[in-house]
Amino acid sequence: RAQAIPASTSHPKGLYLLFATEMWERFSYYGMRAVLVLFLTDAMLMDKPFASKFYGGYTSLIYLTPLIGAYISDRYWGNRRSILVGGLLMAAGQFILFASASSYGPVATHAASHWLLYLGLGAMIVGNGFFKPNISSMVGSLYTPGDSRKDAAYTIFYMGINLGSLIGNTITSLIGDTGHANDFRWAFLACGIAMTVGTVVFNWGKSKYLHTPQGQAVGTTPAHSGGINGIYALLPVLLVLVLGVLYLDSAKFPTIAPLLAVAVVGIAYMIFSDKSLSKADIQGVLVIFVVSFFVVFFWAAFEQAPASLTFFAKENMNRTIFGFTLPPSIFQNLNSIFVISGAPIMALLWTALGRRGNEPPSPVKMAIGLLLLAVGYLVMCFGVKDLQPGVKVSMFYLVALYFFHSYGELCLSPIGLSLVNKLAPVKFASLLMGVWFLANAAANYLAGYMSSLYPDPKSTAPAPVLLGYHINNLYDFFMVFVVSATVAAAVLLLISGKLVKIMNAREAEAA
Ligand code: GLN
């Protein structure tokens, strides 16, 4: 039977195990995140700017810990054990949030529920650090280096991500975002169950399905051992973690930038001082760093979804359709819906262009992604231009925004995962996946900060100012993203030729 399917189009069964595991995990992550900011404002009684920054701090740390998880996995645990530990921690975190939200009365009056909130989110931050980089790099490990099916594999994997997000977000919006603050707990409970299922599924199938085409087990052993004494290298990393949690504890901490800078410098030093890497290896790693910088501008704007864009849905948009009023958090699902339906279209498009020899190289695809993101916000700007106070905007604009953002994401995100996997020297595969996620850490922090500038017509405080630019209304607010994404896209396009040249040299050497 295996022979009936040409090897170039069929995929190893292990891919579907990783697909299923990631699907349940993303159910848990996005399902929770979809209602988090509303939980913070409506149940924990935080104001919107504070809740926005809190959200940014949380998701920023979510993307910072993969670095630590990747490091431990590369040197000590291997992918499989890291995924199991991460899965268990994240399930525990969701159940702790369930406990936090169950002590509602209102929650804000209970110190215990606040501590449980921190503890639950902390467990998820650490757990995600073990889980996310390992599952992402394992996808590529199921194939021999240079296998042309890798891009497609990451696209399929990406559909698992979004299927999980779609199911999770739908369930948590319907059972948690009901308008009654004490219902949020049901969302967290559902997420805890989902994460448990994912961990069990992974544990069940791991030995059976996770191997290379040659039949060698994948993810059982660390990618490399030796080198710097592990304990010493771990110290600064642990420090980063502790500072990070402190930061989460107080949204007053000025910026996460110093933490990220320490992390980036540390990794760069570790990799660039490694004598076993060739010149092409090093240049490939440089490309990963450069590309990661540009995607910050993408995610900072994109991750407004559960924050300012959900405030928008709640306060400024008509949510009634066929006499039924939709919960504000449910609109984030449009992203998953467009990604799932769009992924095959994009895969076909790239293949068709590839056959004619004019498939854009990865950095160009990413620049296109940034441009589509800008278009999404531009459409939104039309919707809110000269908006009279109290007038609600049609949901068309938000639907269109998510449409463009999702196609932008498809041009940028799966392509990026695959690019990192291809360019990273094997011994640093997971660590460099951590660098890719570090870009998200910076971006998510910025996203929370940006969302805290969301204009509030009821507020008597002076309009927020960003680098001298006054954000007086929704139009000004959304315009920030139009401009930043367009500029980033233009610069990336300008340097893409150089990046592609390095990538080709790296691939020629690997072949
Ligand atoms: N939606 C994707 C995921 O959850 C990408 C997230 C990201 O890189 N910001 O994996």
Automatic annotation (TrEMBL):
Sequence intervals crossing the membrane: 27-46, 52-72, 84-105, 111-131, 152-172, 184-205, 226-247, 253-272, 284-302, 334-354, 366-385, 397-419, 431-454, 474-495
InterPro entries named among the record's database cross-references: Dipep/tripep_permease, MFS_trans_sf, MFS_Transporters, POT_fam, PTR2_symporter_CS
Membrane topology reported for the UniProt record: Multi-pass membrane protein
PROSITE patterns hit by this protein: PTR2_2 (PS01023)
Protein localization: Cell membrane; Membrane
Any one Pfam family match given in the protein's UniProt record, by short name: PTR2
Single Gene Ontology MF annotation: peptide transmembrane transporter activity
GO biological process: oligopeptide transport
Amino-acid biosynthesis keyword on record: no
CDD domains linked to this entry: MFS_DtpA_like
Gene3D superfamilies, A to Z: MFS general substrate transporter like domains
PANTHER family according to UniProt: PROTON-DEPENDENT OLIGOPEPTIDE FAMILY TRANSPORT PROTEIN, RESISTANCE PROTEIN MDTM, PUTATIVE-RELATED-RELATED
Protein name per UniProt: MFS transporter
Organism in which the protein naturally occurs: Hymenobacter nivis
Species classification: Bacteria, Pseudomonadati, Bacteroidota, Cytophagia, Cytophagales
